Amino acid sequence: MKPELVFILLVSFISTWKLDSAEAKIFVVLMEDDPVVMMSLRNDENIAIYKERMTREHDIFLDSLLEKGSYIKLYSFTHLLNGFAIYSTDKKVLHVLESAEKVRLIHEDTKLQKLTTHTPELLGITTGVWPSLGGSMLAGEGVVIGLIDTGINPFHPSFTNEGLNGPACLFTKTKFKGKCSAGEQFPPSACSCKLVGAQYFARAAIAAGEFNSTRDFASPFDADGHGSHTASTAAGNHGIPVIANNFNYGFASGMAPGAQIAVYKALYPFGGYMSDVVAAVDQAVEDGVDVLSLSIGPASVPSGPSAFLNVLELELLFATKAGVLVVQAAGNGGPSSSSILSFSPWITSVAASITDRKYNNSIRLGDGQSLIGTGLAPPTVGGVFFPVAAAADVCQRNITAGLVESCQNSDAFILTLVRGRLIICTYTFDFESEAATIATVADTISKIGAAGFILTMDPDIGSEKIKGATVPLQVPGVILNNMESSSALWEYYNSNTIRSRSGIAIGFRATARILDGREAIYTGQAPVVASYSSRGPDVNNALLETADVLKPTIMAPGSSIWAAWSPNSEGDQYIKGQSFALLSGTSMATPHIAGIAALIKQKHPDWSPAAITSAMMTTANITATSGAPILAQQKNKLSPATPFDFGAGSVNPSKAIDPGLIFDIQFKHYVQFLCTVPGVDDMSVRRAVGVGCPSKRTEWCSDLNTASVTVSNLVGSRKVTRRVTNVGELVEKYTVLVREPFGVNITVTPQSFKISVNASRHITLFLVATQTTNAYTFGEMVFEGNNNHVVRVPIAVYVSSTLGF
């Protein structure tokens, strides 16, 4: 019988059977034994034998436990997961499976289809870029992304051949010549068509006495989770199911799922050392990576005459010279000014935005109130209301109330009083110092048999960012992360709690039920610069003297990003044991840009790193679809974003692959830039890069041919030159428009021009200070082409004096 006919008959039978009961449900049951993806099966025949054996074991298992006719097995999962899906109308089936041996977890299937790494769709990659490159499987083909990070979990389906959801090894051979270094938890078979290189660097960490071989693994294996997360965001396989705590959050995909990955482990749970990182960068460039992603940075501005002459910055300069695009996290020190920790113009520094995906949770009280909060947690069972009790009212009397309120110790509770109740816990200062965690709250609730928990804010802390709020939880829970909701809950509870004359709670009449907090809401709103994302202006040195360089460079999604994780994680105890994690930071934004850069590199293999960065910058979005400006989170407010918040703007991949014009830069131009940095002499440049300053040089740092114009100290007037190259397919005529920064008059020559394919043209800007600002003001230069190309160049100017005007 044909497979499609079997499927039609099966669907027909289920549809008929479903009429007998409104209680029919589908359950996904995962078993303990390893699926194919976790096995070292060397050929197709062995894989088929193993899959057939697992399928047979599923049938035997079900037949031995469940009555015939009480279920239908829909699928056997043998590839990415070892388990099965069953359809049943019998309530007893779930109970039997929950108590059966070898069952690892049970997940009730959902009818909603969601995207997990929502960002490919959000950025327009799935419809605007992947189809032009041959589809998701081939998007990034022939490009190798190197990641300097904490290593990788090679067994994760985001990186295995089996996780490709199609024929494996479609990748084109590249110039890459790296190797895989086997070691603990990292066998020689760990590398694949996707993961083509893996090495680790720890000599400095070992010498410093911080490396622990038991914890940190002397191999490329990811003992932290961070490296797996960034790698899968950049180039993880497409369509990987994201299951955390028995719940399917959707399907994950990297930005360039057809690209290959090479990892260079130089960071560990404790951090890392620059020499290890430099060694890793060196090896990566020698191996032949095309893009280098570093979700890392220094703790502060390096000492010395210039931050640009720091060892790592120079190492990355030579990586650029070798044709490798370097992408680095801007830092998480925002919203403070000049908190940027990625300095040099040859580095693409990435800011982070909040996406339109939200996870909200709520609790309904017995009096009809609904209080909004957060929490990636399941709902309370059955849609019924449960009695509510404060932790301090159901604990042993000989324990300090403050220790109980945070719900960190299960021994503190009286089990007869907590079972079946929702427990009110308090987010105290212990959570801020990480002496207490939300994961431990959930663990406590599970141990004491409570129905769930409600975490309220301590009035002394106020409405702060909750640490650990994005951890997937196994028990019902809601975090009331504002004082208004917390106060409303306490008012309701206190008015419905009967107390003795001594104040002891003797009657609990407050009831509530917690809703499901795991369903994502997509608002469609424009990206917002995250508060933590480091801000410009860029600095020349540790004295924080500002530089003629725009930083950050570009912005990408960085908040609440689902991606691969390492179950052995020592880096985040909140999510230890999970295969996926929901994280935020410029570390998460950086691999988005690395993956998008790989897509551009595939489309334009001869483009230089500067050309690729230029393409992303000049096509970035600075407004929402409505035309309203993109906003930035500041301290306790939102305000229109500036180039010091998001660089050139929010990346737009579908436009970046066809930018019209590019601003290209060669190594010699970066040397000239260094020669014009204030406080840097010729000898310093020679010692740093091996060549001296040319006799004929540019006068200002602002003359470097970047796709932005930054003047940190305008006195009177200045001439700035740019050179554009037509990378379009046709001759195009451009008109140049300027929106002047406040206090500056700008004249552009020429104001319009026609440019042939592959031809270049110089553009001159003459800036005249009209008013002393003693602050940065912002504008832009826009090239509008008659072939629909729009090339936008941000301008930032600090007018120190109008002398000479």
Topology:
Layout: H1 3-18, E1 25-31, H2 44-65, E2 71-77, E3 83-88, H3 91-98, E4 103-108, H4 119-122, H5 125-128, E5 144-149, E6 195-200, H6 203-207, H7 213-216, H8 226-235, E7 240-244, E8 247-252, E9 260-265, E10 267-268, E11 271-272, H9 274-287, E12 291-294, H10 311-321, E13 325-329, E14 348-354, E15 357-358, E16 361-365, E17 370-373, E18 386-390, H11 401-405, H12 415-418, E19 422-427, H13 429-432, H14 438-448, E20 452-457, E21 477-479, H15 483-495, E22 497-499, E23 505-508, E24 511-514, E25 521-522, E26 528-529, E27 554-557, E28 561-564, E29 580-583, H16 586-603, H17 609-618, E30 631-634, E31 637-640, H18 643-646, H19 653-656, E32 661-662, H20 667-675, H21 682-689, E33 709-715, E34 717-726, E35 732-739, E36 744-749, E37 752-755, E38 760-769, E39 776-785, E40 790-801
Parallel strand pairs: 5-9, 5-12, 6-9, 12-13, 13-14, 14-27, 18-19, 19-20, 20-21, 26-30, 33-40
Antiparallel strand pairs: 1-3, 1-4, 2-3, 7-8, 10-11, 14-26, 15-25, 16-17, 16-24, 18-24, 22-23, 28-29, 30-31, 32-34, 34-38, 35-37, 35-39, 36-38, 39-40
Helix pairs in contact: 8-16, 9-10
What labels describe this entry?
single chain; 805 residues; alpha/beta; 10-stranded mixed beta sheet
What does this structure look like?
With 805 residues, this protein is of the alpha/beta class. 23% of the residues lie in helices and 26% in strands. It has 21 helices and 40 strands. Helix 8 (226-235) packs parallel to helix 16 (586-603) and helix 9 runs parallel beside helix 10 (311-321). The chain is globular and about 85 Å long. It starts with a helix and ends with a strand. One of its GO terms (cellular component) is extracellular region. It comes from Fraxinus pennsylvanica.
